[in-house]
Each structure stands twice: as structure tokens, then as C-alpha cells.
Amino acid sequence: LARVSDPRLSPTDRMGVSDQASLHRSGGKRIFDDWDVSNSEMGKLKNISLPHGSFFFGPDSHQVDIPESDVFDPSASWSSLQRELLDDDSDAINVELEKKRCASYDFGFPDATMPLKRRRLFYGALISGDSAEVIKATSMEQYNIYHTVSLIESNTTQNLTPKKWRFFGSKDASKELNWLYQLFGPKTKVSVDYYVTSQRKDQIDGDELLIEYFQREGHSYRWKFNGMRPDDIAIIADIDETFSRDFLRALQICDVPQFRPGQSCRAPKVYASTLIFESSPECAWKTKSALRNAAGRGRAWFHPDAILGECADQIGDTKLHPPTKRDRWESHGTRLDYYGHDNEYTYYDSKVLADLNIEGQGPLWLPHEMRSESFMGQRVTKKDGSPTGYHFHNFFMSTEEIIFKYATYGHADKKARKKKSIRYIHDDLMMAVMCTLGKHTEKTESSFESIAGTSRPIYYLNEEARQARHNLWQDIVRKDDEKLVQMN
Q1: pLDDT tens-digit map of 349-397
Q2: Are 184 and 143 in contact (CB under 8 A)?
Q3: Burial class of residue 12, CB neighbours in 10 A (0-12, 13-18, 19+)
Q4: Which of 219, 257, 298, 318 is the most buried (most CB within 10 A)?
Q5: Three-class SS of residue 25?
């Protein structure tokens, strides 16, 4: 398939994959054995080259025939309670039920001048070595809700440590991909696309999150390929985060101020008040909400993030929302100070909008900005103080996976591999280890059942799933403790 042309790029920026390969060298040595994909199966995919790397777009789940041996029904394992909560995708809208739902988040309900229909939701997340456990937990919450699930894999970590493709190039990869296609429900178009960076370590200046920012740009192209419109909703998350199902349904139908047409796009986000689980569903931080007194409030998290399609890159109108300036090739990377970074638009107003006789508008948002430009919108908590999202943090299957993550991904800890125990790598892991040992603080929940409020992740309402994950985490801690004893 032909390469997609991005009108923002100069002719030199539109270099092909083989051309960019020559840029990705360190001391004259090629970093990745599988870099030159121009003549491989990946090179046959629809692709787009940007100054920082290339995206290769695979088929979505509605475009493939899954072998009968790989077909499965995620709903076959649901409990009766889970089935009751997940069987809510009727085309008919229960007005009274939805009015109550909207009121529980302090949202209005569409009036006679507004269309009564469910908004389409388009999701984007990066995917790598995330455990099947955490993907099952988030996908169950989202089952048959999203129009599109855009997942992007890379062959490097964020600090450019090489890694093998998980979802491309082997029989095992094909089986994993077929599994992933089916998890989110048959109504959802699921895709895994691939990012290959052209950046060297000296080019990212120690800012490892730049690679994440670049990689996320592929979501807006996938959304556009799948027919996203300005009145649709873009949602950006990590794969281990999700809005609660009830809140996703609210975003689809309620009168959310940020989703009304004609947005300025300056502060367009709706983002979660998130309950954080550490390594096990039995180990959770208390939320910072009205459910707790000041001494008993634990940790706050504020993802996923949602914005209206008319404010999203590749979807909105650049005539209404002129491009801003960013720190890499002007149109990539982080917004410059006073050009919309941290909600400060002084130079954008005086040096961009003024020349166009436009006032009060903001630029379109790159996918990473929907996440990285914090607090530019409304953080929503349920009126009873319950969270609107969940973060399943560090739900890995082994100590090796944990160490690899902390040593090579965002804010990498170069000393992670030298720590005597995983508990010494990060305070979050210390909390999870102490929880396993039955040692809780006023800022942590004593169990899944002790969590205050009315929001619970649907996957872990199944007690067997909850116990199985906690048992596995206990085994990881036990083996780590044995290793620590031997070292001492």
C-alpha cells in the first residue's frame, strides 16, 4: 500500500523507511537488526514517515479472518454479575436510567435542541510487554463500547533499548494479535500499528518521554483512517488505565460541557479521578476525594483523558484552530512556553492568532498532549466521591518484567537492576510488597472489599480472578524475599 502523505511535512521530511534507516545509527553501528523493514512484510503495510520515525498500519479486527483455532468468546468466563453489568449495549436508550447516570456525575441531560444518541468513542494506548492480566482487566471494562481501539507497538522502549515485536512477525505474535482482536468485543475495531523511531539517544537529550510522545502521534492517523468525525470523542490512556464503564456510558450520552460543538480547544479535556491498584486488586491506594478525611487520603491519579474530536489533530479544522509551535520540527514534541504549554497562550495569541485576525481559539491537540498537558479541562469525580477511572499499576508476571520496566521506560532508573529487592526500586513497589505482608497504612486500603464508594473494576468483581492475581503477586514477593535473604 502507498505511503500516506502528511501535508505538514516538507519534501525532506517525507523520506521513506530505508532513507530514515541511515539516520538511526550509533557510532556507525546499526542499533536494530530488524530496522530495515522496507523490503519486509511490515514494509508492505500502509505507512507514514514523520521526522522522528515511521508508522506502519496493520489491519483492524473487522478486516481479518481469525483462524477457527484462535477464536474464543471473552464473555464465556463472565460471572452472572459481570454479565449483568456488561450487557448494556442496546441501541435503545433508557432515558430515565441515563438521566440518573448523568446526574451522578453532575452532568446535564441533552435537552430538546440536542440529539439523543450515543457518541462514538475512539481510544488510543501504547502496548508493549503489558501482562495479559491487565489487558483483560481494562478491556472488560470497555467491552463493546469503543468504536475504535488504536494500539501502537514499538521495537524500542522509551530510552531506546531494543526489544522484539510482540504482535508482529511470528506465529506466536499472530496468536497474540488474534487474542487481542477479540477482547474488546465484536462491535469494536481493534488494531495494532507499529512505530519505528529514527531518533538516537543523543537526539532526545535525556528526555525519554519524547519517544512516547512521538509514538502516540500514530493514534490520530488511525482514528482518521477509521472515519473519526469532529463530534466523536478521543480518549488517550496507558493500556493499564481505563475509565469506569459507567463513566464511559456517561461520556457517550450526557451533556458534557467540553463536548458541546464549537469548542475553543484551549482547555478541552475531561479526565478521570482514578483509583490506583498496585500489583494486586487487594492492594489499592485510598483516593484523594471527599470519601476520605485529609489524613486518610492516599494518592491521586488523573488519567485517562478525553477530548472532543473537533479539537484532535488530523480531525479538527486547522483554519479554526491554527497550528501552534512545538520544540521538535515546530509541529512535534512539546508545546513551547506561551504557545499553549501549561495553558499559557500569550505568544500563540500575539504571534499566531493576531496575524490571522482570530481571537480566543486554541490549536488542535496531538494525542500525547491530551495526556501530557495536565489539568487543562475538568477532572470528574462521581458526586458520591467515587472514582471515575482505574489504574492497574505494575500488574506484571515476574520480577524480571518489573525490573525491565523500571530500567528502560519513562523516567528510567539506571540503578533498578542493581537493587537488592524490587521493594527498593520505587515507593509504589514498596507499598505493594507491604500490602502482601499485611502491612497497611492510613493511606492504603486494607483489601478490595474495603474500597469506599460505588465504583469497582468489573473484572475483579470475580473473586476467583481477584484471588488468582493476588496469589501470583504473593509468589513474586516470596521469591524476591528469598533472593534478598540469600544476598544478605
Answers
A1: 999 999 999 999 999 999 999 999 988 999 999 999 999 999 999 999 9
A2: yes
A3: exposed
A4: 219
A5: strand
